[in-house]
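Issue 218. Parser rejects a valid record. Input:
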Amino acid sequence: MKSPVREPVLLLVLLLMMVVSCGSPEAGGGIGGTGNTATVVSGPITNTSPNNVSVSGSDYNTRSTVLTVDGKPGHQSDLKKGMVVLVHATVAHTDGTSEPPHRTANTLLYEDTVEGVVQTVAPDGSSLVVLGQTVAITATTIIDASIPGQNILSLVPGRDLVEVSGFITGDGVIVGTLIVLKTGPPDYEVKGFIKNYDAAHETFEIGGVTVDFQHADVSAMPNASSNTWNGLLVDVRGSHVSPGGSGAYAVQLTASKIQPEELGIGDGEEAEKAEIEGFVTLMLGQSDFYLGNVHVQTTATTTFKRGTLDDILLGSHLEVEGALVGGIVNATSVKFEGEMELEATVATINLSNNTLTLIGLAGLVIQFDSQTALQGQGSPRFLTDLRSDDHLHIHGPPRGGNAVLATKVVRSTPNPKVQLQGFVTTAADPIVVLLGASIDTSSIAESGFKGAHGVKGRSAFFTGLSSGMTVSLGGTVLGNTIAWSSASRDD
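Output the parser choked on:
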């Protein structure tokens, strides 16, 4: 005989289960609901700590992460700041609250951008050549402690073997994010765009290196008899390097394995969201471009930070977020990285070397070249059209230890306002150094130090502030100095 209360109790339990399941929806739930979003992330490591890694400034829990480092199982201790990594993550968020999302790295992959013997080092330390690739050294490049004095000028061409992580920006050009001196046998590797593909001789070139793939594993590549390899971004591993090819730093690499550089998502496995940092390598249109090997498109609803749609140029350093659909990232936000952004008043102009300096920013040099775009009040066209005390808005990437290469300069109505945004070189309360300009923040009130979620205060602002992080500073020109009144961090 059935219990007279069992069925009502079961019904009540089922109803409660329905309520609980509706109250905790997946991504897209109501106010206070939680959701998980699958995300693929590509960018440099900006910080590491036990069971945690920061990629492009976002923190990921690595307690249960499967790490692969240069094709082998890795450990947390293998990770270094500056490594450009690929992360497949789960982002858990609570809707309707101000709580930051909780990010968990499920897998993390790191591979060198180029590894080989140093061929040459520029006398001013601004670049080096490895396996026929020119590696640019910027103010944010991390020189590992394995290199004597953490100075690339101490590297010996023809002898020292280095691992380089960085962003590929064009044919044979890499912007270095980390340089490490390696000991032991070399694992030759190079990433880059294929050119001069020769199916008959089974060779192609990447920058100044000629790749011989006669005996390589190319199973992941398109049909080798076709002519579709030119322009592909690939990862090449090799077993032997010898002189060969044309050009001052040409070498030949005998390849053992070649594969396309991809986000690592197969058909039917696309992430709901992608967060990609890199350099624009191909422009199909102003709103249709490639970031590295990733196809990106913007729309009328895309938001832009630190720039506008018109500022996207070949070589622009961007961080893009959006939905990955059909292999294309539909950008919801585009953030300009790697560029200094200044609003300040001209102190001096040097026409002999096409540079200018700014009032209150001693040590920082603005370099002009034939590609610098001038516009604004009075329609200036050349550096000779500018004058001391002109108020300028300047955009451009870092060049060397204390210079900015101006890509865009706009002259506006004279005013005392100063805005400075860029990468930190060094920081120690109360001083922040950006590309040679030493900023004394002593005059900034406690409430003037801000972060992504509001006021941080002086102590929190300087805690963990280190080379490579981005800060924004604001102030007012007073005579030949600047009275700084605000400082903010994006993290």
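Fixed in the parser; the record now loads. Residues 1-33 have pLDDT under 50 and may be disordered.
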